[in-house]
Amino acid sequence: MRAIGYFPGASATAQESLLEFCREHGHEAVALVTEPGEAGFRRLLAHLELMPALVVVPRASVLGRSAREAARRYFQMVALGADVLSLASRDDAGRELLQGRGADGMSERVRRAMARRAVKGEALGRPPFGYRVGEGRRLEVLPEEAEVVRLIFHLYGQGLGLRRLAQRLNELGLLTRAGRPWSVAAVRDILRNRVYVGTYRRFGVRVPSSHPALVSPREFERVQMRLSSQRQGGERLAGGQFPLSGLAVCGYCGGRMVGVTRRQRWQRRDGSEKSGEYRYYQCGSRVNRSLCDYHTWQAETLERRVIEAISGGQARRSVGPPPSARELEAGLRRLDERLARLLAEAGRGRLPEEEWRAQGVSLAFRRLALERARAGLPEGQAAAVARLERWHELGPEERREALLALVERVIVWDDHIEVLLRP
Q1: Tell me, what CATH number does 217's domain have?
Q2: CB of 58 within 8 A of CB of 87?
Q3: Do residues 273 and 403 share a domain?
Q4: Domain, as residue range, for 60
Q5: Three-state secondary-structure class, residue 275
Q6: HSE, side-chain direction, 13 A CA sphere, residue 405
Q7: One-character DSSP codes across 284-299
Q8: Is residue 391 domain-shared with residue 299, that is, in the same domain?
Q9: Quick one: 289 and 375 in the same domain?
């Protein structure tokens, strides 16, 4: 997997830390961003727009000067297809935010008191899926949900992939605790959670054998090994360079079309080997939730059809005036306030982690769209059309800029597309 280091304000040793981590885990280090502040973060987002990757940070706190800013930046990266890992905890940076800084404004006295309760194995906030809070605030097994957890580990251990597993759960009519269909992210969060081997972990406190386990340590470790191995190679979602990322949506379900890169290798008749890499766009609802059919387009074909629609006058313009600068700023403030409330609720255990992630990513998508609108067009629309006529001469970043200047949305069906231009 490609990895990008984000070490704002760091010295030259940051590069060694990134390279050492990549050598240890088999990743390819492709960039290192050390510029502090919003300018450095914008550089990081520009990398992710062109090539979603694993983002490695020294610790979650470098993501922002406050928990609100850190959560906002975390979800913006996730919305662009990145995994964000903290070297300090060797865990997801979002999970580290919840454990260490989730309740922005929580007093140190309250935090210490909750940590003391965690040492005793007392449940804090909402229990994980599969458990309920029982006598003495200890986690107790919730039989109906526990059977789903065991089924997830069993099916994954039998070789079922994450997408097919989510689809199987949805076909069986099983729902998450929030009453929603299972997604790839929700299934992965279950499989990664060490609570199911009887270990309770909150506020940096780890208490083994604190409650009944739902899976054995051996089964859990086998699952972790497979999860780690599947991060390497094969079919990669949102990998490579996809200029229509975030613009193309499925015409059947309204879900985002996500970029997928697939590598294939085959043997010729003379015994020599040949390999190839193929890019295509696929319905994200199918990929992440298995709730749609296999709607897919070869990337070059879809991109060419979009350019032809724009240059040939078949694209239609969005109705209504663009939002004013004041409306955009108010919208950004509202989204930031909602992200802050979500982080506080999740940090206090009032919101399940999977629900926090789902809502956070949704808000981040909306914020990225507002930021693009606030930034204005990188150039006039007429000039952008002229640039698209030289599509094959443009670099990935230039292609992306020209499309963002013109296109509001591309609606994709199996046999045709509809291009909606900005007002």
Answers
A1: 3.90.1750.20
A2: yes
A3: yes
A4: 2-101
A5: strand
A6: 19
A7: HHHHHT--S---EEEH
A8: yes
A9: yes
286 or 234, which is more confident: 286
Give the count of domains, the chain.
3
**Are residues 214 and 121 located together in one domain of the fold?**
yes
Element (H, E) at 262: strand 257-267
On whether the CB atoms of residues 94 and 357 are closer than 8 A, the answer is yes
Residue that terminates a domain, selected from 180, 205, 230:
230
Q: Give per-residue pLDDT as tens, 83-108.
A: 898 888 878 888 888 876 444 444 44
Paired tokens of 260? 């997928």
Nearest partner of 279 among 264, 265, 260, 295, judged by Cα: 260
The DSSP-derived string for 190-234 is HHH-GGGGT-EEETTEEETTSS--SS-HHHHHHHHHHHHHHTSSS
Per-residue pLDDT tens digits for 257-272: 888 777 777 777 787 7
8 A C-beta contact, residue 256 and residue 247: no
Is residue 130 domain-shared with residue 192, that is, in the same domain? Answer: yes
Phi, psi torsion values for 276, nearest 5 degrees: -150, 155
Cα 180 to Cα 95, 133, 289, 358, 372, distances in angstroms: 21, 22, 10, 11, 30
- 40 and 154 part of one domain: no
Asked if 375 and 405 touch (Cβ cutoff 8 Å), the reply is no
One domain, residues 170 and 56: no
